[in-house]
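Follow-up to my earlier ticket, as requested here are the two runs.
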Amino acid sequence: MEEIKTYTQSERDWAMFCHLSALAGYFFPFGSIIGPIICWISRKDESAWIDINGKSSLNFQISVLLYTVLAIPLCFILIGIPIIVFLIILKVVCIIIAGIRAGKGETFKYPVSIPFIQ
């Protein structure tokens, strides 16, 4: 049986910010990477929970960026367009779900995320 851990409200809030800060990418170039980096680096030494969520968020954002870059050449043969649309929808949905779950102190494993940062 999985052990349930309790985290302080501050830990849960910062873990949530690590995920939701990735939405900054829709307003600033590379904001989806810079936002989680800032949240993670500023608080990773204070809590293992924030460290885990920050790494998870960054790994997902880097993975989606890589998949998008790989899909761009496929747009010339039209298959890349639905792939990029799928990635955009997946990104928004996963960020929101991960943010909500982190705010509750629950874990969330991003799909299609490559663990670049261990």
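Run two:
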Amino acid sequence: MSNFYIAHERNQLFRRMERITVDMMSDNGVVSGHHTVLHLSRELDALLAADDDSPRGSLWSRNVMRWWVLNLAPWPEKVPRDPNELSGFAPAAEAERFGRDFDALTECIRRFDARVSAGSMGPHPRYGALSRDDWGKYLYLHIDWHLSKLGL
């Protein structure tokens, strides 16, 4: 299983991220490369800001669903989304901001990595407490899924 904490997989993920361009479009023509960068930054910021020790997910989602999502399931394309989740794809700022937004994303990933590695990451809102290995799978799968939608 792919994992952000496996060096060659992490390096491959970063090489793919470096190929994102501001005007690149997803395979469905809805999300640009800039939107993807903004979405990933917002998601990581939200996870870093979550200090609540009581996850919203149910016992089922914190155990069975977490294991299934991180170990077996392909990340879904046609799963109905909560409108709040889609808000991460708000309109992108002007093209000149892309470089700054990309730098902000890499900084979010660095802060996320530091928190997980230090063992100070709070629980995932849906899947509850995750191990370093599970956080690595989650981060890799999330970024990989969005990069694949951009054809990267």
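The only thing I checked on run two: Residues 7-149 form one domain. Let me know what else you need.
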